[in-house]
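Entry 14. Structure prediction run on the chain below.
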Amino acid sequence: MQRGCAAALLHIGRTVLHNPGTSNDDLAAIDVIQKLGATIIHTDTGAIQVTSNGIHPAHSEINCGESGLGIRMFTPIAALSVEALTLNGTGSLLTRPMDFFDEILPQLGVKIQSKNGKLPLQIKGPLQPADIEVDGSLSSQFLTGLLMAYGAAGADNVTITVRNLTSKPYIDLTLQVMKHFGWEVENHNYKQFHFNNRTPNLKPQTLNYTVEGDWSGAAFLLVAGAISGRVTVKGLDAFSTQADKAILQALMDSGCRLSVEATQIETGPLPLKAFHFNATDCPDLFPPLVALAAYCEGTTVIEGVSRLTHKESNRSLTLQEEFGKLGIDIVLQDDLMLIKGGTRVKGATVHSHHDHRIAMACAVAGLGADGEVIIEEAEAINKSYPEFYTHLKNLGAEITTNHKSQTTN
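Output returned:
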């Protein structure tokens, strides 16, 4: 959804976004593209119509909410403007590292001032595509923003060289969206991304883009089915490039009931066994994987812990702390997380740490607990999946909610 919003802003003409998201991150992206010059109309069919003539900021201050992808993607895009702009965020985003931009943007003709590598960012373009080399080890999201900005700027015979790129499937998704909107990028084994600009078609035209169902949110529902009762999830693309589609492999390895069809995916309980999974390229799967592992007999090993430090919370420590309250022992060993499952999940009061995926993981874990699981600051789910508790209720879970916490049985 966020990539679709960015592409619609950069596309000269009209874009109709079908199946739009409604999470806080999605709403922040809509607000950003409006402030950068796009006009938004919500249609009777539920689609969003975006009309844009490129980057023409209507406001000098842009707020990306708490979206890590939002700030990292929209900063290079906003830098296409000649206007001086301030980019900011809220919550945990204010503590996440942004010094990547301090190093890279000046090489592209953009003046930038950060708060010691943190938000807010003050920038003044216009960004001029050039041959650069970037470090992709912290997050692929910085590269996503550069790729989209280069494409929209008409980069010609220019290459972005990348070292140590993580989360390659997310770059596949970015390139897929760009291709849909007419920007072609040569991907040389994820080490070099080369642009050969062809004469752009500047005639206004209407493009239709359908936002895919979100595998990262669906992962929690699929795990819920594996540990608690049969669940059928519709609206997912089994051939998606989204990194979190890898949840299917973990579910298969755990031994749960799993059926994958073109129009739906079904999971159900069977005796679950510990599994080994590498989440380096899909770190957002750690929370649902930990919930799954809690019900698997034996010790599950998940690789990629180093990717969890700069999320909404330090997720490795947060998962260890909160699942410890639920009676599940988690050991952190270098880049490995070891979850000792099959010991029964006990009722307890846990805290989301204002992290949407921690709240959802604790809720799913609570489905099979031997007592009530109370989640404090449970509204954190609104960041990515505001309907989550409603969907669990629809599946038969006993959930009571108030403004700050929710109880799962």
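Residues 175 and 185 are 7 Å apart (CA to CA).
Filed with the rest of this week's runs.
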